[in-house]
Amino acid sequence: MNPTFNQSGTSLDDYKFSFEYYLDYSNSIQADSIYDFHKENGRTYHAYRAGAYHHPNDATEVERLDDQYQILKIILDGRNYLAPFSREKPPHKVLDIATGSGSWAIDLGDEFPEAQIIGTDLSPIQSDLVPPNVQFVIDDATDEWPGGNDWCNFDFIHTRVTIGCWSDMLTQVIRPAFERLRPGGWMESQELMGILECDNGPIPENNAFKMWVDDIVEACIEVDRPMTFAASLKKWYMDAGFINVHEKVYKIPINGWPRIRKLKMLGQLWHANLSNGLAAFSYALLHRTKGMSQEEIEISLLDVRRDLADERVQIYESFYVVYGQKPEGDSSSTPQPQLFDTIMAG
Ligand SMILES: C[S@@+](CC[C@H](N)C(=O)[O-])C[C@H]1O[C@@H](n2cnc3c(N)ncnc32)[C@H](O)[C@@H]1O
């Protein structure tokens, strides 16, 4: 399969983006390789920059990401962002870094039909059914970002659940994003903290779910993708130069332990999502760092599933939403030299 330059298969004339600079590049790369997924323990993983990210990209994981997207939307009361955009004050150029299945970008394209939305990812796993103003691009965000007029002067740059993607989110994502925003533009990160907290005392040391999270946190450090960064985002935004920085933290119960109906339902949904994701979160990380086989991992997950479902221990995760504005007077978003290290997903 060859990558194509738009998702819906219609003429490029329908689009406002300038694709010319991708065309030369597309002739010179091994384009099929982005679909030549790495296979490991019955799951598939991204081919572009293979090995950089440790969660699978197969249909099971894409379905879980879509479910997770809907749950996070419930937490945000149906919103996709907290930054101050609206129908009256829409963004015109939006970038979603590490877009995954692309649900957020697609929703934003529907909400703001006049805006141009680009979603980037290592995996070409986005839906084919996209509004004409949404485009997906295969790109490693830890590389220098692509150049050209399409890649600067953004009104809005967004990340969501990029836990385990970066060795240093400040230098790899937040600073480049600041540079590519137009003066007055906004960045927003919606990230899970990846540390368990508890409402009724310390979590017992022998709780298998807690022990599993500790193992995953340790494995992420070992592969240089530290996952517990969400609480640092506010400071990183300010260090990068953002002003009007806001932080909002939401509790996500890991199962149906809360009494309040809405929180209970949220916990039940999160429990289902976590249960569906346990294998995905574990296989590559524990295989690559601890040499565990698929069978050993599945056996260890039996206890993890049991304690994940235990409603006597009131465990929750924290979900951070941080957003900030590039100062009006800052004009650092100038077109960059064009780099041809980007492939359109198709
Ligand atoms: C947990 S998923 C989240 C996807 C999406 N933002 C969401 O909220 O559903 C993380 C995504 O980051 C992508 N990713 C990981 N490292 C990346 C990198 N260096 N550059 C671009 N995307 C990356 C993965 O391929 C994966 O699709």
From TrEMBL:
Listed name of the protein: Methyltransferase domain-containing protein
Lineage: superkingdom: Eukaryota
PANTHER family assigned: METHYLTRANSFERASE
Naturally occurring in which organism (per UniProt): Oidiodendron maius (strain Zn)
Molecular functions (GO terms): methyltransferase activity
Pfam families per the UniProt record, alphabetical: Methyltransf_23
InterPro entries: SAM-dependent_MTases_sf
